[in-house]
Amino acid sequence: MVLKSLTGNYAVALAVKMARVDVVAAYPITPQTTIVEKLAEYIDGGELDAIMIRVESEHSALAAAYGSALAGARAFTATSSHGLLYMYEWVNWVSRARVPLVMAIVTRTIGPPWNIWTDHSDYYEQRDTGWIQGFAMDSQEVFDMTLQAFKISEDPRVYLPVMIGLDAFILSHTSMPVEVPEQELVDEWLGARTQGFIIDGSEALIHGALSSPEYTEEFIKDMGKAMEEAVEVIREVDYSFGRTFGRSYGGLVELYKCSDAKYHLVLMGAWAGDAMEAVDTLREQGYSIGVVRVRYTRPFPGEELYKALSSSKGVIVVERGVSFGSMGPMFLDIAGNMLKYSRKLPYMRNVIAGVGGVNVTYKDFEYIAKETIDYIESGEEPSVMTWYHARRSK
Amino acid sequence: MSNLTKKAKSLHKIPIARPSIGVAGRTGTWRWMKPVVDLSKCTKCYQCEIYCPDNSISVEALKGAVVNYEYCKGCGVCAEVCPAKAISMVEEEQHGP
What we know:
The complex is a heterodimer.
Chain A: E1 2-7, H1 8-18, E2 23-26, H2 33-44, E3 51-54, H3 58-70, E4 75-79, H4 81-86, H5 88-96, E5 102-107, H6 121-124, E6 132-135, H7 139-153, E7 162-167, E8 175-180, H8 183-190, E9 194-195, E10 206-207, H9 213-245, E11 253-256, E12 263-267, H10 272-284, E13 289-294, E14 296-298, H11 302-309, E15 314-319, H12 329-338, E16 348-353, H13 362-377, E17 385-388
Helix pairs in contact in A: 1-2, 1-7, 3-5, 7-9, 10-13, 11-12
Chain B: E1 6-7, E2 16-17, E3 33-37, H1 47-51, E4 57-60, E5 64-67, H2 77-81, E6 87-91
Antiparallel strand pairs in B: 3-6, 4-5
């Protein structure tokens, strides 16, 4: 094991290299570009034995990665925002074809107005595509999650592509120390790629043919089943990763100071670290609060969240994205999924913040948490959904 | 690379099919025009066999082009590409199954 200082993007690239991918296909877009630049450097320097397919668009990037994966290659691509939207048709095709593949999404606000900073709208928009979706908090987790993504995607119980989200700039271009394991250990833990079918000319297969509605329904239903089974696979992979490399994240959700907490901040991504800092300060001031950090949004960790939140006095879901005309996508998922376990839900508040890349710090989390707790303790309830607006007059 | 990849059966249904004759039933019943080969004109050039989208016409070495009417949908591509004009499209006397 060695300690290396890596940006979020370089952590992705190093993990992809150590997973020994065969094919990388990508089209440059800020802030994803440095992932593929680094991979190109690895290939050029002979450190990674892979083919870099240069393409004319993101639509072709995923198509090329997919074609390689069909033929049995471990393939990878990465994109952001408008690039991701441009490859949208293929995003859906790859998952419905049940082909294992890994893609990194460096989350970036969708324009107009033109904007390169992070919010989660591009990542959220993928939630119905049938991809497994994870979101990392720091460079170490990005590294670990990328390696784990290949193992999850290539599990015969799953055979679905996996996307890993990481925040633009505040994670993608910020250096942190990362524990990098030995290559031999990674090889042993990850093993050879497996997939459900390989199109390499040795066997005649028809793929993408017309299917009657009844058969099509069965395929789609089975994708849902694979998603459900992926919950256990993600937990298993997290556990075996911990046994081998010494780091485990607790499965689909990470709990921070939650064992005795009365109130809960729920969020995902890099700013969860700021929320944890805020919780440290709030606890010193006597507030009983913890952080529930969502690591995977597909499959959605309904069971974990129900266990963590069902007896909470107040749940504050802070999100960097909104479904226009409705609420935050994760808030809707939490409320809907908790209804599977009980009709009685705790008080829940949805705060939309940091949209368009607005900087949100531990001070903002302190403010949001105190405001909510003070309302509830005084017997009032703040409105269910609010915007925490940076240009507000305080 | 790909020689290391293993095929391991999915535990769910995967959208692939293996080609076999008649997976969509007797598609010949879809036909309302049928290709009729004038074997005296056939030069066995194989154009009809190459172009047929359903593999329903084949050239036999001695005889010439033979249509498989069980599965021929009557699209007429063979008649269109035949350089010897040996194939004509004739309306079916009876339609449907």
